Amino acid sequence: MCALCGLLGTERDWSSSMASSLPMRQQRFLRIAQANRILGFFRLTLEDFQGVSYVLSSPTGRREIVSDFGQLWPVAETLVGRPIDPLDPALLTWLSSIPQ
Q: Which of 37, 46, 81, 89 is most buried (most C-beta within 10 Å)?
């Protein structure tokens, strides 16, 4: 796929906000920022890949391309080597300690 397709912002999935007045591309970067708040606890980083998918990176340099947020969490668990529990008390404490 060419980079132009990603710039046009044709993405629309369950994680997209239908009520937002922000451009879809900007919404995408806000979702990435929010995911990185959680993923940072596990020392993972999510980046945009040409506006149509994402690259998830581990601190060891391992990188995986994920197509959407539904695929993100299973891949993150694979990179971390354990289940990711969104209600883990340590994760919730860590999230409350970092600025938004």
A: 46
